Amino acid sequence: MLFRDYAFFTDAGKTFKIIFRTVTAQEELGSNKATKARFFVLDGDTPCEMKDGKSLIIRFQYRELNNGEVKKYGVEGGSNTSRQEKINGKIHEAVIDEMKDTTLKAFLRGPYKNDKPLLLYQLGRFSAKNTKDYFIHKNLKRFLSEQLDYFIKADVISLETLEKERFSISTSPGPKLLEKSEKRSLVFLPRSRISRKGSGRRKSSSSKQSMSLPRIVSLRSYIPKS
Predict the structure, then answer these.
(1) Selection from 130, 8, 134, 6 nearest residue 62 by Cα
(2) pLDDT score, position 222
(3) Among 10, 36, 106, 224, whose CB has the most other CB atoms within 10 angstroms?
(4) What are the φ/ψ torsions at residue 41 (nearest 5 degrees)?
């Protein structure tokens, strides 16, 4: 598994650049592995390296833990997420202890967001990004269609407006927005939603008001031309 470098600056003035780099992990012997799940841990050979006095490279391995590491990090139990958080805390302490530059150390241990030090906060983002962003979905089109429907119902067209205020399609900004984005968004919708798109028949205003939301979303013939 490959991971891109994760980089950030210590402050708005870009005094120091911090780079998290995942290097090739050394495989442990099967008998030494204590966990099936993999975690981000500091590289054992060169965990930290300063470049040109302005860039700090912190190297990681992504692998299973052995029995000694499980005890070292205190991750005997709990979810993988909580165990990685404990490991991140140990990584934070180890990196801070190794820093010789007092200015850099002050930046890394200084408060950033949610009362967390800058380095610890970024460690959390780094580990979460690389373990949660990727998934395989058996029916990706259906999943994206459901997510699109939810977005439209929640953020584009108000169901309360449709039901209580007898929503008028010709004056609503929602259909105009859908018309502009139709080519991009409807590709994810099932074909049944657009089967009537080519129909030349016009509906009366009363039938428009009684249509279900999915049909309003999918039938471009009911969206007025601007």
Answers:
(1) 130
(2) 39
(3) 10
(4) -135, 160
For residues 204-214, give the mean pLDDT: 41
Residue 222's nearest CA partner among 151, 160, 157, 164 is 157
Q: Please give the tally of structural domains in the chain.
A: 2
Radius of gyration of the chain (CA): 26
Q: Model pTM?
A: 0.57
Is the pLDDT assigned to residue 86 strictly greater than 70? yes
Coil, strand, or helix at residue 42? strand
Residues 6+ apart with CB under 8 A from 47: 58, 59, 94, 95, 98
CA 59 to chain centre: 22
If asked whether residues 196 and 119 sit together in one domain, one would say no
Q: Which domain covers residue 194, as residue numbers? A: 140-222
23 within a domain of the structure (yes/no): yes
Q: Are residues 14 and 54 in the same domain?
A: yes
